[in-house]
Amino acid sequence: MEEGDSAVKRWEDLDNDILVKILQSFDLFELTSGLAQVCSSWRLACSDQLLWKTLDLSVLKSNFIKIPLEPYVYVDCQSDKTLTRLLRIALNLSRGNILTLIFHYNLYVSDNQLTYTAERCPRLKRLVMPAWNRIKKTGICRAIRIWEDLESLTMPSIANPPYVMEEIARNCKKFAELKIMGPCDILFASTLVAFLPNLKVLSVRCTMLSKGALVIILEGLKKLEVLNISHCLITEVPPSSPRKVLTKLDESILEKASRLRKFLTCMSDSCIMCQRTRNDEGLMRWYKYEEDLWKVDEVRSLAI
To answer: Ranges for the F-box domain (predicted)?
Structure first.
């Protein structure tokens, strides 16, 4: 082809919509690898809101060791730097358009990283963050105050849930869905009733759940529509007797749950997930199982 032929086109002249379509097939690491530095048109495409509705960091894990004192994990410095760099690039490209943010259960975010993230995605509607070991009360409360549009949260079981639920109740008026990845006791259930009476969807699958907590949830959350207790180790402590694990739900529980649109349960001896919950004594060790098993939920809106 002769020099100066008008048929010759440059990559930067590629139609923006076509380029965005191509970039949608790229993963997070590819999108943040420097494509936006090629030219101004590529940076514009890399910042398109279609690419940044969801920031899925579930492919990234911390390099850590367990320690006997709080926060019970020590994260390698290089691992922290990798996460910080990825957050900086991704959040700059996203231009505040992220609506869903997903962290791996072994990705231990620090207070500073969480604050940096919250300030740069203020429109967040869904947060999946199963590990809070390195996040202090002030850090999560500061983030929740920024996320006024938050509707859905996947979180770990924590020893002192009232401060989180009170902050959500005060700031997140559209909040409707909660998933707890860990034991749900009477304190946690009572906290939900006290601060989140309008909760519509709750999942406490694959964990230890006391019968008392289940009763509080069913009686106290009047607007609850969907409750998932699939594969739970449901326990009861009769007066002057040791704790026992229920093999089925009694009629009083089923009657209380009959008002729900969906009541999802599974307590089968032949169910692999029920067996795993029992073997792990209600504290699922997700690292032992299939890579993405922790993302599963019988409630479609809470699955990843």
So the answer is: 16-57
Please say whether the structural domain 53-175 has been given the CATH code 3.80.10. yes
Q: Domain ranges in the chain? A: 11-51, 53-175, 194-290
Residue among 128, 114, 145, 109 nearest 54 (CA)? 128
Q: Distance (Å, rounded) from C-alpha 133 to C-alpha 141?
A: 15
Predicted TM-score (pTM) of this structure: 0.91
What size, in residues, is the chain? 304
Give the C-alpha separation, 180 to 220, whole Å: 17
For the chain, give the DSSP string: --TT-TT---GGGS-HHHHHHHHTTS-HHHHTSSGGGS-HHHHHHHT-GGG-SEEEETT----EEE-SSTTSEEE-HHHHHHHHHHHHHHHHHHTT---EEEE-TT----HHHHHHHHHH-TT--EEE----TT--HHHHHHHHHH-TT--EEEEE--S-THHHHHHHHHH-TT--EEEEES-B-HHHHHHHHHH-TT--EEE--SBEEEHHHHHHHHHH-TT--EEE-TT-EEEE--TTS--EE-SS--HHHHHHHTTSSEEE----TT-HHHHHHHHTTTB--GGGS-TTGGG--SSGGG--
d(CA 223, CA 245): 28
pLDDT digits (tens, 9 = 90+) for 195-228: 999 999 999 999 999 999 999 999 999 999 999 9
